[in-house]
Amino acid sequence: MPNTRSSCRSLTWLGCLVVLVGLAVPGTSLAQGFGARAGVSADPDQFYFGAHFETPPLVDRLTFRPNLELGVGDSLTLVTINFEFAYKIPIPRQSWTVYVGGGPAAVIQKHDEAHGGETDVLGGLNFLVGIEERHGLMFEVKAGVIDSPGFKFGIGYTWR
Fold first, then answer.
1. How many CB atoms lie under 10 A from the CB of residue 85?
2. Which of 46, 120, 138, 148 reaches 20 to 30 Å from 38, CA-CA?
3. pTM of the entire structure?
């Protein structure tokens, strides 16, 4: 009899890979930028890192910025696939732009073996505010509800 837990774990990671490739393939031809990010979260207390794409403005100053983040710590591994939109508000005569936004998230959590070793696929919603420099440096704060991490602070860079 096959190990269902192992099969489920393999399907979960395969699903993440398929979604990531799906985000990357159509996004690269339209991408305004590609970036990397890292930071800390609370609830759960973790360190996370990830990558994002950013499209040209869809309307006015609204961009689509899907991202994938991997969080580790607090007896848990999280993979969050975020489908976020960002509305950019330029600061006059400055190289910095403020942005606000949010969007839904798919949250895949794996408890370590000491805490049951179970893998769950959950949903969440993120709200974000950030500031980015014209050349790519960014700082971002996220608040999550439902099953998204409660709070995240991240630093990243977008290559344009």
1. 17
2. 120
3. 0.79
